[in-house]
Inverse folding.
């Protein structure tokens, strides 16, 4: 088992909160991590029909059977159970009494926001980050300016992008394309129908692949709905589903007005680039060198790695992008209080002057002293106030 950087946070939280919830996409390692941390806890999988029926029909009796702390796996299958947990934790006042796991973003579930407010802390466990895979410490996104020894990874970003980060691919050395085909089918047939009523799975799969073709780009919902042959209302509902199940992330624009007309549409990214490559019919890492979406896929990878760094630190990501109607765009902005730190992301392996054009424009506009370029090469230096970092930095 590859060590997960979120483990220390979860251990600490279990001593401070009666309920700890761990969410994330299917096969991100939630159950494995829970068993490793809470090996002495009772364990129940609510995916099992008989167990689920017991929990639905007699929630009080179901919870009363546990004489010690318990892991309730796949709790999204019985969300009403959360209302019955509240009086138990209020009466017992025992920290770490319930560990909940699920594939849905609990922050979007009304039941948990109301029933367990103040009693539960939630963490997101995404697929493996690059630093987890190679055994490096988690990246502190607020200390990106700090020079550190460059991380050497001879596999190249193409290998990591194509492989993706699902733990089982590394534990069992599985063929990623074969496994992701089964994963996608399971997601469509089980998870999608659990979380919402989708009548035509073939249309939803088309919608999912169309989203893949838009990763790293501004989201035009009307165009997406038209291409999928569905209404805008349905497209919005399906995008919410993909967001809630940690398949995609919608990156919001930073809307501070610099006397320019700003773009307000979000950008769409996939959390796992292995899944993204599968949906785009990319069948080898080498194809990424010449693929028409090479730049967008590389940008998706960097954004997802920085997002994982935030999740593994137990924090919400302070990420935005910036774009105006004149075509000026900063790929990523990290907001730290009143400070904005701009990052440009380029897949090329050779640094050129053009890569700094927008960064220098932004620095002049905002009087920003520092900026960063993350690119597909291996050099690590500072150039006229712009910090140059290789992809392996993240």
């Amino acid at each position: 088992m590859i060590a997960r950087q979120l483990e220390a946070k979860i251990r600490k939280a279990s001593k401070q909160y009666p309920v700890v919830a761990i969410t994330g996409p299917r096969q991100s390692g939630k159950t494995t991590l829970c068993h490793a941390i809470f090996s002495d806890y009772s364990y129940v999988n609510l995916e099992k029909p008989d167990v689920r029926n017991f929990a639905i029909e007699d929630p009080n009796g179901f919870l009363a059977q546990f004489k010690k702390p318990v892991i309730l796996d796949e709790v999204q299958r019985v969300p009403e159970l959360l209302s019955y947990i509240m009086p138990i934790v209020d009466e017992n006042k025992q920290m770490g009494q319930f560990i909940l796991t699920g594939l849905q973003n609990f922050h979007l579930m009304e039941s948990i926001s109301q029933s367990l407010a103040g009693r539960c802390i939630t963490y997101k466990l995404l697929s493996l980050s690059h630093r987890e895979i190679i055994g490096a410490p988690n990246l502190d996104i607020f200390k990106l300016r700090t020079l550190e020894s460059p991380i050497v990874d001879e596999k190249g970003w193409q290998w990591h992008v194509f492989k993706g980060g699902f733990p089982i691919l590394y534990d069992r050395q599985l063929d990623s394309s074969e496994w992701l085909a089964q994963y996608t089918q399971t997601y469509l047939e089980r998870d999608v129908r659990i979380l919402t009523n989708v009548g035509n799975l073939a249309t939803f799969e088309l919608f999912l692949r169309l989203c893949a073709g838009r990763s790293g780009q501004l989201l035009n919902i009307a165009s997406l709905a038209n291409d999928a042959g569905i209404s805008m209302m349905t497209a919005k509902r399906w995008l919410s589903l993909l967001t809630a199940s940690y398949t995609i992330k919608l990156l919001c624009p930073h809307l501070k007005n610099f006397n320019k007309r700003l773009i307000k549409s979000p950008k769409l990214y996939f959390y796992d680039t292995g899944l993204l490559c599968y949906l785009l019919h990319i069948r080898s890492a080498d194809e990424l060198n010449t693929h028409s979406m090479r730049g967008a896929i590389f940008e998706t990878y960097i954004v997802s790695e920085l997002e994982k760094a935030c999740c593994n630190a137990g924090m919400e990501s302070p990420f935005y992008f910036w774009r105006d109607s004149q075509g000026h765009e900063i790929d990523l902005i990290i907001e730290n209080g009143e400070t904005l730190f701009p990052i440009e992301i380029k897949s090329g392996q050779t640094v050129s002057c053009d890569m700094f054009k927008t960064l220098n424009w932004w620095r002049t506009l905002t009087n920003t002293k520092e900026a960063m370029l993350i690119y597909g090469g291996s050099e690590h230096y500072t150039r006229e106030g712009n910090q140059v970092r290789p992809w392996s930095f993240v």
The CA atoms of residues 136 and 392 lie 11 Å apart. The first strand starts at residue 19 and ends at 23. Residues 130-393 form one domain.
